[in-house]
Amino acid sequence: TVIHLRQSINQSINIMSKFEGKLMGMGNPLLDISANVGQDVLDKYDVKLDSAILAEEKHQPLYKELVEKYPVQYIAGGATQNSIRVAQWMLNKYEKTGMTAFMGSVGADSYAKQLEDCAGADGVLAHYMKDESTPTGTCAALILGGERALVANLAAANNFKPSHLETEKAKEI
Fold it and tell me: Most exposed of 50, 59, 60, 61 (fewest Cβ within 10 Å)?
C-alpha cells in the first residue's frame, strides 16, 4: 500500500506540473493549535485519543491553556484550507508560487493574525472575512504517544457571508 500511495502522489504531482490557473477554496478556516500533552489534559477535558469532536463549553479554556502551558505549533487548518495548502505545496515543486487562495470567516483577534501568517508562510493567499463579534475558530490537536485527539471550536468559521465575495480583493482572486 505504501508503494501505491507513492505512485498516486507522484501522479498527482505530475498533474500539478501542468497547472496554469489559480486554485481558490472556500471553507471553515481553523487555527490548529498542536501540542504534546499528558494524559492529565485529556482527562481534564474528557477527550479520548483518536477522536475528533466539536468543542463544548467545557472545552473553551483548553486553547488558552495549551498556548500558556505548552510549546505549541500553529498550523493553518480546516479541511478545505488544508487541501489548498497541500495543492500549493505540490505546485511549489514546479516553482508555481502564489497559485492558491482561500476564503473563509475569522474573528478580529490575534488568532486571526496568526492564521493568516501561517497560511501565507505556506504560500496561500488568505482573504478572510473578519467577524468582529465572534472569535477565530480553533482546533486543539492534543498529541500523546504518537496518537492525537482533535477538539474543534468552529466559532467565526461558521459566519461567512456571501457579501464577502463582492470585495475588490475577492474579485481579483
Answer: 50
